[in-house]
Amino acid sequence: MSYIEIIPRKFVLIFFLTVFCTVLSAQDQTIKRLKIGDRVNTEQVIKMLNYKTPSVKISDFKNKLLILDFWDIWCGTCIAAMPKMHKLQEEFGDDIIILPVTAGKEVDIKSFSEKNPVLSQLDFYSAVEDSTLSQLFPHKMVPHVVWIDGDGIVKAITGSGEVNEDNIKAVLKGDVALKEKKDVLDYDHNLPLLIGNNGADESFFLQRSVITPKIDGISTMFGGPFVESDSSVRFRATNVSLINIYSLAYKDLSRLPKSRIVLEVKDKTMYLNPAFLKRQDKQMDTEAEEDAIWCYDLITKGDKPIDQIRKFIKNDLDLFFGLDGRMEKRTIKCLVLKKNNQFTDTERKIDGNSYKLSAFVYKYNNIVGNHFIVNESEGYNPSVAQMDVEIGIEELKANLLKYGIICEKEEREMDVFVLTEIDGTSL
């Protein structure tokens, strides 16, 4: 026979009832948070330091306005307000009781108050080792002030700034219109603000910008400004190159020929669209391709000039990527095309595929690193054989000369976009 089998049933029943009642008792002791208009349990015992009695009950202050002033020794604002609180106590005498409340241990509060230059000069007293009042009136920040009338009804919950002569007189007369202090009790300062409604609704921001790596499953696009339904202004870019995102900051960049983009960086492929590079038969492994694609989203509320918002975007990108992106005028090496007026073979036969000269110039000018072509051929636009857009300059000259086009190197001042690595740690 096991040990359990020989235990008398009567004893088991008594034990079960004892445990069951203990659980119920613990549940009954759950402290309910009080709000304005609720009645306080006036028989709650409160431990005191430096008071005329070692403990008090709220009922001891019946027919008085009780102002609970929650504080702590690390709260400089709380301590700085103590002289004002004592002055108001003296002014209103028996009509009110201003009661400082802290969860600090009695021995610690006593030692601190005797050494503190502010508290040591006052006839200081406080409720100490509190665990109940702070549950009745939970808060995240101190000072935290609770106003309770002579009947034990919570009349207001405020900050210490509301505790002044005029407001005390108004509450004593029954005229309560004080600004309520609201603490966000579930706010976690270890988590990002507003993410998952942490601290406030996630739409509470005035301005927000986000940078992410490539997000699989969403489309490629970029543009702005877009005016949202709440009148906020938005710029967005998803799964595009960094150059594309910089075009949100510089509206002319999206129309700028890519040969007028100057990359003062170690690895140019990290700043260009991988799809564009693949069309040029550039080799790019999957990991590098992922690293070259980004998302950016900025939303700002309020009446801000669009040019100012574009500056926000530039600053975001420069700061995060360790770059300096800018539009500027530079004297750059160009290829200038001119018509050879001595050329007569305008009907030259072309073997293979061909396109108009203007089409070749457009393609050539959209390769980063190429010399920019300035077409000054006076409207002369012959068909030419298709050429590699990264053709060598001397070969290009020879090919164009076949069609009556002279190609010469010259320097011209041009608007260019420059992207410079600042600290060598970008990307």
Can you characterise this structure?
The protein has 4 domains: about 1-30; about 45-170, 3-Layer(aba) Sandwich (Glutaredoxin); about 195-320, no CATH class; about 330-420, no CATH class. About 25% of the residues lie in helices and about 25% in strands. It contains 11 helices and 17 strands. A 4-stranded mixed sheet has the order 4-3-6-7, covered by helices on one side. Strands 8-12-10-9 form a 4-stranded antiparallel sheet, with helices on one face. The chain has a 4-stranded mixed sheet with strand order 11-17-13-15. Strand 3, helix 2 and strand 4 (about 95-100) form a beta-alpha-beta unit. The longest helix has 20 residues, at about 10-30. The radius of gyration is 38 Å and the shape is rod-shaped. Residues about 1-5, about 10-30 and about 275-285 have low confidence and may be disordered.
Q: Topology of this protein?
A:
Elements: H1 9-28, E1 45-49, E2 55-57, E3 65-70, H2 76-92, E4 96-101, H3 106-115, E5 126-127, H4 133-136, E6 144-148, E7 154-158, H5 165-172, E8 207-213, E9 221-227, E10 233-240, H6 242-249, E11 261-264, H7 274-279, H8 286-291, E12 294-300, H9 306-321, E13 323-339, E14 354-356, H10 357-365, E15 372-376, E16 383-385, H11 393-401, E17 405-421
Parallel strand pairs: 3-4, 11-17, 13-15
Antiparallel strand pairs: 1-2, 1-5, 3-6, 6-7, 8-12, 9-10, 10-12, 13-17, 14-16
